[in-house]
Amino acid sequence: MHYSTIIPTLLLAAVHTAVGTVFNVTVGGAGIIAFTPNVVNAVAGDIIAFTFLQKNHTATQSSLAAPCVPLPGGFDTGFQPVATTQTTGFTIAELHIESTKPTWVFCRQANHCQQGMVFAVNPGANLGVFQSNAANNPFGNITTSASGAATSTATSVASATSAAATTTSTTTATGIDHKIIVGGTGVLAFSPANISAAVGDTITFEFQQKNHTATASSFNTPCRALASTSTSGQIGFDSGFMPVASNVTSGFPTYTVTVNDTNPIWAYCRQLTHCGQGMVFAANAVANGPKNFSAFQALAIAQNGTNTTTTAPTSGTVHAAHAASYAPVFAAVLGAIALFA
C-alpha cells in the first residue's frame, strides 16, 4: 500500500490519474473526535483521502490486536494542526490501496484512540472488535523494552491561580512513582532529566505549557522513536502530543509508564526541534562510561534532532515526486505546529 505526500486540497484533482474510487474521509473537526466515515470497503487502485479538519490529529496505521499502537513500518501522516478559525485549504493525505486486506488506523493524539477515534479499510466482521479493543485494550498484549505501557492520561483544565512546578517521587504499593515535569513556560526540558528507577516503579510524565511528547527512543538515535528504529520488534511508549495552553496552571495531563527491568530507558520530545535542543530523558543510564546521560543528550544535539514522524509504508513507496511543488504547504504546516512548540 502507498501513502502519498501530503498535498493541498486544490491540487488533489490534478494528482489523480487513472485511479479507482477516491473515498473522502474527514479527520476531526470542530468538537469532533472521529474519522468520518469510520469504515470504507475498497479495492486495489482506490484511494483514501484523509482531510484534516480542526484541532490536531493523525492518521496512523495500527493493528486489530493493538488499535492504539503504531504498526512498525506502517504509515503515519504525523500531526496536522488546524486552527479553529480555518475554513478552507485543509491538508489532505492520500492512502493508496493495493489489496483488499484489512487496514487499521487511529489518531495518536493523547487519548483520542481510546475515545473511539479509529478507522478501518475492509474490516470485514471485525470493526466492532477493533472499536472495542481501542476502548478496552488499546495497547493489546504488546510489551515494550524496559518501560511498560501507558496506564493513564488526563485532560488539561484552566485555573485562575498560579502554581510553581515541583518534582516529586511518591511511594506506592508496588514501588516508587517518579514525577517528571515535561516542558513549562519557557522550558524545553524534562525535569529531572535523568533518574534511577527500580523494577515495579512507575514514571509519570506531567505535561506543562506548550505541546510536548514523551517518546521512547534508543541511545544511538535519540531523536527517533524506538518503534521506527528497533530491529527486534520493540514498540516503545509514546504519549502522543499533549498541548497545554499558557494560562493553564493545574490539572495538567499525565502519562505513566511502568519499569519492567533495570535496562536504560531513553526518551525524547518529538516536537519539531526540541530533541535537537537537548530535550531528552533517561532512566537507569550508567553514571560513567560511553553511554551515560550526558553522552545521550550530546548525541541528540549533535544529530540536530534528526527525526521522522512519518515512517516508511508497510509496502510500496511514498509518493514524493511533488514534494518540491508543495514546499509552501509544508512551510505553512510547520508554521502552524510551531505555534504550539
TrEMBL record:
InterPro entries: Cupredoxin (IPR008972), Ser-rich/MCO-related (IPR052953). The keyword Lipid metabolism does not apply. It comes from the Eukaryota. Keywords: Signal. The keyword tRNA processing does not apply. Residues 1-20 form the signal peptide. This is Cupredoxin. It comes from Hypholoma sublateritium (strain FD-334 SS-4). The lineage of its organism: Eukaryota, Fungi, Dikarya, Basidiomycota, Agaricomycotina.
